[in-house]
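Chain A, query sequence.
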Amino acid sequence: MSEEGETREFELVLQGEGGHYIATPRVGKQTGLGVTFTLPEDLRPEGLAATLHGVFRDATPAFPRGTTAPVTLRKLGEQLSGLVLKDDVARRLRDQRRSARAGRLLIRLNIQSPELAELPWELLLDTEQVPVEFLGTSRGVAIVRAVPGEVRPPQTIVPPLRVKVMVASPKGHPQLALDKEVELLERALSTAGSDGRVVVERVTTPTRGHLYEALRPGTRPVHVFHFAGHGAFPEGNDEGEIILCDDGDGADPCPASEFAINFAQTDVAFVVLNCCDSAAGGKAGLFTAVGSRVAAAGVPAVLAMRRSIEDEDAIRLAALVYTQIASGATVAEAVAEARLAMRTEGHAWATPVLYLSDSDPCLVPRQARTSPDAPVPPLALPESPEQRKAIFLGIRLREVPVLGRSVEEDRAAIGDVLRRHPAVAAEVLENIRDLLEDERGRS
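Chain A, predicted structure.
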């Protein structure tokens, strides 16, 4: 059994071409026996678009609470699971699943074939559950896609965490509730603390030029980039697009290759592409989707959308992910919890695709999270004896900074200092005695 909080990993390598494929399990440095498979007609490139359109379209309407997924979504999950989750693959996954009961299981999909990359492997089923459920909505399980190519090594984020937000709603496209999304994003991240640990900045003009300026080398580092708006993969195109604005607020489709280059050699650790088709790719290669292209530019974690996503679902997803990040969760943990929370709300939980490098970024240190059960942080004591006396006697000196909050809000922190520092406690008692003596003298 794994220790509580420990993460186990299971890698599934999917490769092949010309209709003949193999799924190979890897656990650590051990490679298991592969499973060969072919794709049924409805999952081959020529029929896949119609299949996915039918499945995700049919899954869009709300369905009764308590139902884990529409039949079509589950059927597709059964198809995919039947292709690869058998023999040694199934055995090794089962072993890792069981050993991770007290911790977390991270499933990495290492997809090396463009036609396989278009399949929604996030729908694989968890046969260890009774009744059988999706792995993607199982507690303690995160499914991610390995980032192809080289990525930069893990970085240490020096607070504050800087979040750059760009929203684009050009003329001629459906108007989205973008202000609401930004408001909920800011509210979610504010739970990480009110002392400047997180700074959210908005790119005022969503053009190619302003995107470059927001991320160009030499400016203040950006750790998280959030885009909300529209994306597309037009028929006949070789790569996906992010729909930015031109100088007249008209639509300016920005190809994946041009969009992604802005993130190369930056400090960005997490990109959220909260728009339709930002994870949709094509037959031309593994880097045709905007999400995979941004990940290949060196960003450790990229969250993108496989198909279209309803505005309301996109807003809720973002709020859930950022709330978890603010509480100290890693990116993979945050997305897994968001899927779990949305599992009874149609297909929305299956729409996100998370590209993840070898490291799973933790953007807000766990010790910095704010919750009723979190340990009280150390009290920053003022230097002036009079101010110290005033604080410990409960006098309201709001100009005295104590963790950036008023004195009344820091009684727990004050008590913590007194318990941990007997010398300070003795000073407080002496100050109280002095005060009492002064009061007696006046009377």
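The two ends are 70 Å apart (CA to CA). The chain is about 35% helix and 20% strand.
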